[in-house]
From TrEMBL:
Family stated for the protein in its record: Belongs to the transposase 27 family.
Name of the protein in its database record: IS1 family transposase
Keyword Phosphoprotein annotated: no
Native source organism of the sequence: Pontimicrobium aquaticum
Xref: InterPro entries: Transposase_27, Transposase_27_IS1
Positions of transmembrane segments: none
């Protein structure tokens, strides 16, 4: 019997649970079963949760669809997001757009901002952060964009950007952020916790960042 975690064959039988044989791996010290009655242990559950999160399903909706607890959905969302590696964007001299979208954390009196940057041609997300709109918080995102030697960086008229982006490549006018503003509408459609005029919002910053990482980079 091969271990389901390390895929080595150095396993032995180790008792039963609910009349199902359990195994113990001598290499990775893990316990496992061939079959599980609880659907959360299905090997395809994580991928299913990730796909449902991208299609506008909320945590409770996913819990009802897969028939697992909401706490399990949240813990798996964090686990899946932590396994996602940020893609390395290698193209230089491109055009980028930087913009913000607001949401709530904890309650609807606590407004937070999601600031992110996209490459104009591919619409790929370079990076994002969740927090207040200040020079200190936005600077790491802008620095990552500047490392790509951009031809142009388009932003809105937020007064923080001129002090962070060189004037020669920084552009601000009425329609320069049309692409990323349209993407904001897609975000609010596909991510339940960003939907406006609903009771949906994030209970903590960690869950919001995990969901965005899955949507942007997963």
């Amino acid at each position: 019997m091969k271990c389901k975690y390390c895929h080595q064959a150095n396993t032995i039988k180790k008792g039963k649970r609910n009349n199902l044989q359990r195994y113990y791996c001598k290499d990775c010290k893990g316990y496992f079963q061939n079959n599980y009655s609880y659907k959360a242990y299905n090997s395809k559950t994580n991928e299913l949760i990730k796909n449902l999160l991208k299609e506008g399903c909320g945590i409770r909706s996913i819990s009802r669809i897969i028939n697992i607890s909401t706490k399990t959905v949240l813990s798996r969302m964090l686990k899946v997001s932590n396994q996602i590696k940020r893609p390395y964007f290698q193209r230089l001299g491109c055009k980028f757009e930087v913009y913000e979208i607001w949401s709530f954390i904890g309650n609807k009196d606590n407004v937070t901002w999601i600031t992110y940057a996209i490459e104009r041609e591919t619409k790929g997300v370079i990076d994002f952060f969740v927090g207040r709109k200040t020079k200190e918080t936005i600077r790491p995102l802008i620095n990552k964009v500047l490392l790509l030697e951009p031809n142009r960086v388009y932003t809105d008229r937020l007064n923080i950007y001129p002090s962070l982006i060189p004037k020669v490549i920084h552009k601000r006018f009425q329609y320069c952020t049309n692409i990323i503003e349209r993407n904001n509408l897609t975000l609010r459609t596909h991510i339940k916790r960003l939907s406006r005029r609903t009771i949906c919002f994030s209970k903590s910053k960690a869950y919001l960042e995990a969901h965005l990482r899955i949507y942007f980079l997963g």
